[in-house]
Amino acid sequence: MKAAVLQAIGAPLVIEDVPDPEPGPTELVLQVGACGICGTDLHMSENSDPNVGWRVLPAGCVMGHEFAGEVVEVGRQAGDRWRTGDRVTALPWIGCGHCPLCRAGRGFRCAQAKMRASAELPGAYAEYTRVGAGETIRLPDSVSFREGALVEPLAVGLNAVRRAQLQPGDAVLVVGAGPVGLSVALWCRFFGAQHIVVSDLVAARAERALALGATASVDASQDDVRERVAEAIGGRPRVVFDCVGVPGSLQLAIDYAPHDARIVVVGLCMAGDQLFPTKALVKELEITFAFIYRQQDFATVVHLLGEGRIDAAPMISDRVDLGGFADAFEALKQPNTQIKVMLETD
Ligand SMILES: [Zn+2]
Ligand SMILES: [Zn+2]
Question: Quick one: 2-150+312-344 is in which CATH superfamily?
């Protein structure tokens, strides 16, 4: 089959023929219907520093962990629940399934977990991919593959907003209007925030957040963010989300936050950073970090998509096939107006 291979850290992806995946006893093979390009993959494809706190990718790996597709092969112990033709999405890891972490839905922390984009578990920037039967969730007929590929970034936003301990009527500021920022905006709306202001250095990206639940957008390249936020809210935000994840973005969130606010850091900053603790201290800010999600969040997101209670389709800004995929991935490393670029292999 064809797959987009990361031959070396920092190098462009190359579309190559690689061996077809074969399912282990408790695994399935999917024909990939859609797979979103994730900012994490962009960061990780360029990171060779083992000190950043998250793993370094091996040369020759295939990334891609936001996907949905059709089951084409079923492992010999997985046939009680799954059939060829089933439409599904799946988690980015395969855990042991038995340990307390796996049972709590946090299989990515399992000592035996295989994470996607590793030698043991290639990702879904490919025609086919292998998934764990226990980590697979069925899609309702009303949920398309491209919506199914949004379940993962939606689960990231759901976990972040849970950690924000939002109250109905709250005012929030979301800094960064990439897929994570838009997903956070969607869940803030869902959980009853009254004012949801989204800022970005690219005005068009911030404006797209309005289609996903934001009540105001700020062009951070032109406007004074604090002034615009105060205008839009008629007061101060109680929660500030850092959905950027570059050196300086956490300090920016601290600067934007009023006293006694909560900051939720969701953006993945894979470099050393410097900040002024006193600026957070004198405001008595509460700073919390959000990473991945629980397995149950996937089921929740799929259920709500299936019932039409959330609509994430405006997150998708572009589509690409495997032929144009390497160029599309490379282009996203530069500043751009795109949000979620979706690989569709059909
Ligand atoms: Zn992702
Ligand atoms: Zn486990």
Answer: Medium-chain alcohol dehydrogenases, catalytic domain (3.90.180.10)
